[in-house]
Amino acid sequence: MSPDRGPSERDPRPQQVSGEEARAVPATSTSLMDASHAGTLSAGCEALFRSTETTLQWAWRVLKCAKAGPGAGPLATSARQCALEFLDRVPPHVRRGVAELLGYSSLWQAVCTRLGRPVARSTEELQHELGEDLQVLLHGAQARLGTAAALEQGLLIHLGRLRDSRRGEPGAPLELRAALDAFTHSLSELMTAASAYRRAWEAAETELSESAAWLGAGDPGFCSWMADHLSETVFAWRNAQASVRTLRELGELSQQQ
């Protein structure tokens, strides 16, 4: 959203009215400042983590069924390679995603807490401070969007290889074929979770970028409104941080039980 764009349903700026209503903010705002992104990202991260846990179990099952050795058929060899690549690449990437959201939650809380302190600021000082804060949050969201997008792309490659493998060697052992089918289905569900998580970061990045553009337009009303709403989101991000910390403490994701 650029500063010279006309008002729309997505315009987060306070309405220009008179009297006691001058500071009113539309309750239906879709701005990132309504704290919805904290909950969405937290839920998306948990869905990604849980889906990875389930897929891990099937990856180990495929490895057990796909016996290595000179007598192994092409399906067993391909399935084993896919399972090993998944175990080697995906769980560490998911762990990184959990750690990155945990760090981002801490960063957001620090910004919110500082803005909520009763410090006298001129409009120019507040605008400058908010501008720096938004850039820090924006760059953090962009970096985490990159991590989520890379995971989604990697899963797409894994899924494609699995489906190609499944079409070969129709006479392979039934147990292997069943395990491979279950692994492929679980990986498809993990891909769905990864896509949703990527979209959540994308939405956060987009709205932060739009808010930074509106702030750059120099609207004092929007500047004051955004500072208030940023300060009010600290509780939501504290909850998100607690949820993500629990995920990190659940285990390493890659250790066979």
Strand content: under 5%
Q: The biggest beta sheet, please?
A: none
Helix coverage percent: over 70%
Looking at how many chains there are and whether they match, the oligomeric state comes to single chain
> Which structural category do the helix and sheet elements fall into?
mainly alpha
How would you spell out the order of helices and strands?
A: HHHHHH
Attribute tags:
257 residues; mainly alpha; elongated; disordered N terminus; 6 helices
Please characterize this protein's 3D structure.
By secondary structure, this protein is an all-alpha fold. The protein is built from 6 helices and no strands. It is elongated and about 75 Å long. Mean pLDDT is 80; it is low at 1-35.
Topology:
Blueprint: H1 36-65, H2 74-116, H3 123-166, H4 174-216, H5 220-232, H6 234-249
Helix pairs in contact: 1-2, 1-4, 1-6, 2-3, 2-5, 2-6, 3-4, 3-5
Care to give the gist of this entry?
With 257 residues, the protein is mainly alpha-helical.
